[in-house]
Automatic annotation (TrEMBL), chain A:
Main localization category: membrane
Entries under PANTHER family matching the protein: LEUCINE ZIPPER PROTEIN 4 (PTHR22550:SF5), SPORE GERMINATION PROTEIN (PTHR22550)
Keywords annotated in UniProt: Membrane, Transmembrane, Transmembrane helix
Transmembrane segments: 281-302, 323-342, 392-412, 418-438, 445-470
Name of the molecule in the record: Spore germination protein KA
Chain spans, region Disordered: 1-30, 504-528
Organism of derivation: Peribacillus deserti
Record bears the keyword Iron-sulfur: no
UniProt keyword annotation of Transmembrane helix present: yes
From TrEMBL, chain B:
UniProt superkingdom: Bacteria
Record key words, sorted: Germination, Membrane, Transmembrane, Transmembrane helix, Transport
Subcellular locations according to the entry: Membrane
PANTHER family assigned to the protein according to its UniProt record, in alphabetical order: SPORE GERMINATION PROTEIN A2 (PTHR34975)
Pfam families in the record: Spore_permease
Residues that span the membrane, as ranges: 12-31, 37-58, 78-96, 116-132, 144-166, 186-205, 217-240, 271-295, 307-327, 339-359
Membership in a protein family: Belongs to the amino acid-polyamine-organocation (APC) superfamily. Spore germination protein (SGP) (TC 2.A.3.9) family.
Organism field: Peribacillus deserti
Keyword Cell membrane in record: no
Topology within the bilayer: Multi-pass membrane protein
Name the UniProt record assigns to this protein: Spore germination protein KB
Record-linked InterPro entries: Spore_GerAB
Keyword Kinase found: no
TrEMBL record, chain C:
Pfam families to which the protein is assigned, alphabetical: Spore_GerAC, Spore_GerAC_N
Domain called Spore germination GerAC-like C-terminal: residue spans: 220-378
Organism (species): Peribacillus deserti
Membrane topology category: Lipid-anchor
Domain (Spore germination protein N-terminal): residue spans on this chain: 23-200
Subcellular location as annotated: Membrane
Name of the protein this chain belongs to: Spore germination protein KC
Top-level taxonomy: Bacteria, Bacillati, Bacillota, Bacilli, Bacillales
Length: 528, 372, 391
């Protein structure tokens, strides 16, 4: 939900808080709707603290019998035109008698529904629900002499149009990405899977924000017990607000303290579709273009959708390259420092002479130098993300020239360290999902320190620790390192290399899908 | 450490393979048999299999219990407890010994100025970290270790061949001094290290999925690792010759250190340290873990994890104070330990346990039969 | 509790860093020794060690890469052991010497002749830092210090010597780079003796250099017997070692074809098989060499297309090879030093016989009977068949 909403609400009214106030229908107190239209309008206004964006329109139909209609809606959250044409116009055209009759009708909502041309029309007499509905962008229609309030769905929030993904781009492949609007997002997936088995369940979290969360899966393919686990975990979330899917991620992941992500977050609809088809679930959260996918395995963070859109030789090559890049991003600074301080023998002689020449006259010990340069790079990167677009050029010139070339020429740092740091930085950007790159970014410092303390031995032991940690991780109870350990030969088809799609007849098993085969055995593959 | 850990066959195989290679690769086995050193190793496989069948026989009778438990059932509470405790001490001592081996390896080959204690600390600290993650995690880790091992060992093998280092004629003449040095090398040293060290697995067999897996992959592990050791020894002799092998502390390092292709590929001995540390890690972990399991079992601890820190610190200090210098350490390792420790703990006690268990079950059977 | 203990352990790790017993060493704190020279000072009965080091020249701040900066620095020190001398040298070094990049070891003439070589190699085996697979050379007729003091104009002295050794063994086949571990193996084995290449200092004849400029040149292979240098295999004789050890990569033979004209045959590959057996107390050594080669220069008008001519060349080349081998063996027999490892071959082929003669193998070897069979095949004449007609 937009943040202005949150602030106002928490200050002025607490009765909205559904868990704390229980509406008592029979009693005549301030929160119960009355039969008087003005009082009801006032009640609703009071309930929200009479905000300036609350739009109340009152039409007096018949002054003699004091019959009037009031329309209450949030400005900016509802469709003004639709309210004008589909609600106000038909209602104002009706004559007073007709309207009276229809209101007295027990199924007045249905009758009125024929008149008011909106998607959905609901009848409510609970103040709290009405307010909530108004806050969601619906228009409340109040009539004189009745407790019933009709709510027409006129929700319309200005939203960003579809745009290209910003963090997970591909060369060949779909260019659309999710937006902040939940319904748009689900529609993007639905458009790709036109199958009734695609199921969406609505869940809710955020005690104050009441953020809509939707769980999407393919029935019959996704594992039921995992889905059950997801539902219960989402229900257990205790938090006041959910502003991004990462809030949910932190609550539902298995290991709260791990540096490695155990849920995928993507802004690409095709990634969601591919994962749904492998038996995973997706969690859509209102207000963020990042959709969570689980259960995840470590390998998945190295699988870019493009691997499947390109020739499989290229796909496999790029995949392996990505693992190498991850290795570089994680290890090269550590190994560099370890070799330069503990294992001089390992450097080929000619290279050693070059390196030794570079190190002459450089003031800092190599560990300090590497740490400084790594940190400087992290600062540069952070600045690159946060800075205003207009000064982008300046920062990149400062970064490249001053910190790179000038620092070397001035003899502050050695050229080899700059090379190593920039190699690491570039390697880090090859990850298709940036959250696994974050793990490499942080663990790099751990290995760098170990390497400087005790050389390659330390790095090796550090590797054991990292690997053991990865082996111990689970995502929704399923091993994170599947299928490397426990090793499954048949599952290697899409790990380090990607086999051609016709060869991948079974779904990958890490998510334990209910259907093993993608297509029915002996299916229509060869017939076309 | 969860109570229900079940290890699959492949992981069990990886554990055995890496465990067996452990310090055997490091020191070079059966040096006294000179150029025939590979023969006792090849024969040792058979000995290893026989010993393993004894351990398996015990495991079959008590499928859910480790050695420290069934020794109490077989020999009575007190004697069994003492024997179980003996095993705990034995495992801890071996863990400390292996740790010392690898500390010395690192000091001699790379870290001349670093203290044994420091190197031991790093090793034990990382082992403790993994141990808290549980044995299941470790057995999975061992699988990755096997990949790491293969990815490092195979290229080195290829490099060795392409550096034209191997001189097969070093292996001749065959059986120059007859069979007696071969037999001397075989028993007890080659059988006890590494094959007899499988006694540690009497503590771990209950963690394996089922008896059939344990049997099949256990034998497979012993045979494959034995064959690898044989092959390794053949390569070692062919590369550096018998004399250098006898003289060098770590023949494998000497061997790999000679590889030089062009100006770029050289000093691979630093690289092979990676393999050796992987092997050492697995071996120390297993002995250490067996000791922890044994203690937990003997003292009926609900959380054996509590024993990890004290035992770990004990092992570090034992490893340092076990011997004043490396030569004494080796002397103890090659002369005293095989006879006074390996022989009873690896062979005598398990065989006696199995015999007593057999006799007991016979007596039981005859008793149940008699009334009928 | 678990976490707390882990923190303690990590702190423990830091202590070693503070305690200073670490291997941490910056590149700029080390001086990298490229070549070692070992001489024997007779009067003092001490070793004199010459260290030829890479001189680190600063390239930081200049903006250019450090490539090509291969200045050299020479230090000497004395000691009763090599290690002692190395420690003594620290008075002269401003940095910690690092021996992991030693590329060559030069042994002084006096040391090789008068003192035994048996003792000096131990440190190369024992110390994990120095490699054992580096070539050793004998400073022929001079001291190791002299050899290492010769500074070529363009290269680092050690790289220059190393290059010469490698080049010569590859192109000419007269100088084998005997590596230290091989020398040790041969010294320890009773059935073989080492040969070590020689290097000497000459005055350059290069007119572009200032007169009196020194340069180094490889000369012959030294025959070692019981740890001492006893003689030299010079020129084509030293090819015998490479032929018999199957180390021959390339060499050429000049075949006389009338008058003072020669034809050059390039030998491209060769393989030898040696059999040794004892016959009434005398070793009988049978050597089979199979070699291949091409004609790479022809300075006489011969119709090489014809089978007979070709065959004649083949026979002459084979004869040449056999002669080199024979000369080499004769020289070794004269010195009573089995540099070809015939003893080891006997050991492998007839272990029982070997035991009888092991203790006095040198004398037995000197009496050996050698038969050499060379089979040479010319398999090409390069880009031309016939030479252009000389007038």
């Amino acid at each position: 939900m937009p943040s202005f909403f949150k602030n106002k609400k928490t200050k002025t009214q607490t009765t909205i808080d559904s868990s704390s106030s229980k509406p008592s229908n029979g009693k005549q107190d301030e929160t119960t709707l009355t039969f008087e239209i003005d009082k009801n309008v006032q009640l609703i206004k009071d309930c929200m603290g009479n905000p300036p964006d609350l739009n109340v329109r009152k039409i007096i139909i018949d002054a003699s019998s004091d019959f009037s209609i009031a329309m209450i809606r949030m400005d900016g959250m509802s469709d003004k035109k639709e309210v004008d044409f589909s609600v106000i116009e038909p209602l104002s055209k009706l004559n007073f008698q007709e309207l009276r009759e229809q209101l007295d009708n027990p199924n007045s909502a249905e009758v009125l529904g024929r008149l008011i041309a909106v998607n959905k029309l609901e009848k409510m007499n609970n103040l709290e629900k009405v307010v909530k509905s108004i806050l969601q962008g619906n228009t409340a229609i109040l009539f004189s002499h009745t407790q019933q309030i009709f709510l027409a769905s006129t929700r319309l929030i200005d939203k960003r149009g579809l745009s290209e993904p910003t963090s997970q781009t591909v060369i060949r492949g779909p260019k659309d990405s999710f937006t902040e609007d939940l319904r748009t997002n689900t529609s993007l997936v639905r458009a790709r899977i036109t199958n009734p088995k695609l199921r969406i369940e609505t869940l809710n979290a955020g005690e104050i924000t009441h953020t809509n969360i939707e769980l999407m899966y393919l029935k019959g393919i996704a594992n039921d017990s995992i889905l059950q686990e997801v539902r219960s975990r989402i229900k257990k979330i205790k938090i006041d607000a959910i502003l991004e899917s990462s809030y949910i991620e932190e609550f539902i992941q298995d290991s709260k303290n791990s540096i490695f992500p155990t849920l995928i977050s993507t802004e690409r609809p095709d990634v969601v579709v591919a994962n749904l088809l492998e038996g995973r679930f997706a969690i859509f959260v209102y207000g963020t273009p990042y959709v969570l996918i689980g259960p995840a395995t470590f390998i998945q963070f190295f699988q870019s959708p493009e691997d499947y859109y390109q020739n499989y030789y290229m796909g496999s090559f790029i995949r392996i390259l990505r693992f190498v890049a991850f290795f570089i991003a994680l290890y090269i600074p550590g190994l560099y420092v370890a070799i330069m301080t503990h294992h001089h023998a390992l450097i080929p002689t000619t290279l050693l002479i070059t390196l030794a020449g570079q190190r002459e006259g450089v003031p800092f010990p190599i560990v300090v130098e590497a740490l400084i340069m790594e940190l400087v790079f992290e600062v540069l990167r952070e600045a690159g993300v946060r800075m205003p677009r207009a000064v982008g050029q300046t920062v990149s010139i400062v970064g490249a020239l001053i910190l790179g070339q000038a620092a070397v020429e001035a003899g502050f740092v050695s050229a080899s360290t700059v090379i190593v740091v920039s190699l690491t930085a570039i390697a880090n950007f090859t990850m298709p999902f940036f959250n696994v790159a974050i793990a490499a970014r942080i663990l790099r410092f751990f290995l760098l320190l170990l390497g400087s303390f005790i050389g390659m031995y330390g790095i090796l032991l550090g590797t054991f620790m990292i690997l053991a940690h990865l082996c111990s991780l689970r995502s929704f109870g399923l091993p994170y390192f599947d299928p490397i350990t426990p090793f499954k030969l048949l599952e290697q088809k899409d790990v380090f290399i990607r086999l051609p799609l016709p060869k991948q007849r079974t779904r990958p098993q890490p998510a334990r899908p209910e259907q093993k085969f993608r297509v029915k055995r002996g299916g229509s593959q060869n017939e076309t | 450490m969860k109570s229900k850990i079940k290890i699959g066959g492949l992981q069990f195989f990886c554990l055995i393979f890496l465990f067996e290679l452990g310090s055997a690769v490091l020191f070079g086995m059966a040096k006294e048999a000179k150029q025939d050193a590979w023969i006792p190793i090849l024969l040792g496989i058979a000995g290893g299999c026989i010993l393993f069948s004894v351990y398996l026989g015990l495991h079959k009778r008590y499928p859910d219990l480790p050695l420290t438990s069934y020794s109490q059932q077989i020999l009575g509470k007190y004697l069994g407890w003492v024997i179980g405790f003996g095993y705990v001490v034995y495992f801890s001592y071996l863990a400390a010994r292996v740790l010392r081996d690898f500390e010395e390896l690192l000091v001699i080959s790379q870290y001349h100025n670093t203290s044994l204690l420091t190197l031991g600390l790093y090793m034990i600290a990382s082992i403790i970290y993994v141990m808290f993650k549980g044995f299941e995690v470790f057995s999975r880790l061992s699988q990755i270790c096997l990949f790491l091992f293969l990815f490092t060992a195979l290229p080195i093998l290829l490099l060795e061949v392409s550096a034209q280092l191997l001189q097969p004629e070093n292996l001749l003449p065959l059986l120059e001094n007859g069979w007696s040095p071969v037999i001397k090398a075989l028993f007890p040293s080659t059988i006890s290290v590494p094959f007899g060290e499988m006694v540690a697995f009497t503590m771990l067999l209950p963690l394996v999925k089922d008896y059939k897996t344990a049997k099949r992959f256990g034998y497979l592990g012993i045979i494959v690792s034995g064959l690898y050791l044989t092959f390794r020894t053949l390569m070692n002799i062919a590369a550096i010759g018998t004399d250098a092998r006898m003289r060098s502390t770590f023949p494998v390092l000497t061997e790999i250190g000679l590889v030089e292709i062009g100006d770029f590929i050289q000093r691979l001995d630093s690289l092979i340290l990676i393999i050796l540390v992987i092997l050492g890690f697995v071996k120390i972990f297993i002995f250490f873990y067996c000791a922890v399991l044994g203690l937990g079992d003997l003292f009926k601890l609900k959380k054996p994890d509590k024993m990890i820190y004290p035992l770990g610190i004990l092992i570090i200090f034992t490893s340092v104070f076990i011997a004043p210098n490396f030569n004494t350490h080796l002397e103890i390792g090659f002369k005293i330990v095989p006879i006074y420790l390996h022989l009873p703990f690896q062979m005598a006690i398990p065989i006696i346990l199995l015999l007593v268990a057999l006799i007991k079950s016979k007596i039981k059977k005859s008793r149940t039969k008699q009334p009928n | 509790m678990k976490r707390k203990c882990l923190v303690i352990l990590v702190l423990f790790m830091f202590t070693h860093f503070l305690g200073g017993c670490s291997n941490y060493r910056e590149l700029r704190d080390a001086v990298f020794i490229a070549g070692l020279g070992i001489d024997w000072i007779k009067e003092k009965k001490r070793y004199e060690i010459t260290f030829q080091a890479f001189s680190p020249t600063s390239t930081a701040g200049t903006g250019s890469a450090g490539a090509g900066s291969t200045g050299s620095v020479l230090y000497t020190a004395e000691g009763r052991t090599i290690s002692e001398a190395a420690r003594q040298a620290s008075k002269k070094f401003s940095r910690m010497p690092d021996y992991s990049h030693v590329r060559i070891v030069v042994i002084g003439d006096d040391l090789a002749k008068a003192e035994s070589l048996n003792y000096i190699f131990d440190v190369f085996e024992r110390d994990a830092n120095i490699r054992a697979n580096i070539p050793a050379l004998i400073a022929r007729g001079t001291s190791a210090k002299e050899v290492l003091s010769v500074i070529p104009a363009t290269e680092h002295p050690v790289q220059s010597i190393n290059g010469k050794v490698r080049n010569s063994s590859k192109m000419l086949g007269e100088n084998e780079a005997t590596e230290i571990y091989q020398i040790i193996n041969q010294l320890t084995s009773t059935g073989t003796e080492p040969t070590i290449g020689g290097i000497s200092v000459i005055t350059s004849e290069n007119p572009t250099q200032p007169p009196g400029t020194k340069e180094t040149k490889l000369r012959g292979m030294g025959i070692i017997k019981e740890g001492k240098l006893v003689g030299w295999l010079d020129g084509t004789k030293s090819k015998s070692i490479l032929f018999l050890n199957n180390q021959m990569r390339q060499t050429n033979e000049s075949i006389n074809c009338g008058g003072h004209r020669y034809t050059s045959v390039r030998i491209t590959s060769s393989k030898s098989k040696i059999k040794v057996h004892m016959n009434t107390g005398k070793p009988e050594i049978t050597i089979h060499v199979d070699a291949l080669g091409i004609v790479d220069e022809m300075l006489c008008n011969r119709k090489i297309m014809e089978y007979d001519v070709l065959h004649e060349y083949e026979k002459k080349t084979a004869g040449n090879i056999a002669k080199h081998i024979q000369d080499g063996i004769n020289e070794a027999k004269k010195q009573k030093s089995d540099i070809f490892g015939f003893g080891d071959i006997l050991h492998r082929q007839h272990p029982e016989e070997w035991k009888k003669y092991e203790s006095r193998w040198h004398d037995v070897f000197a009496k050996s009977k050698v038969s050499i069979h060379v089979n040479f095949i010319l398999h090409g004449t390069s880009m031309r068949v016939e030479p252009y007609p000389y007038k």
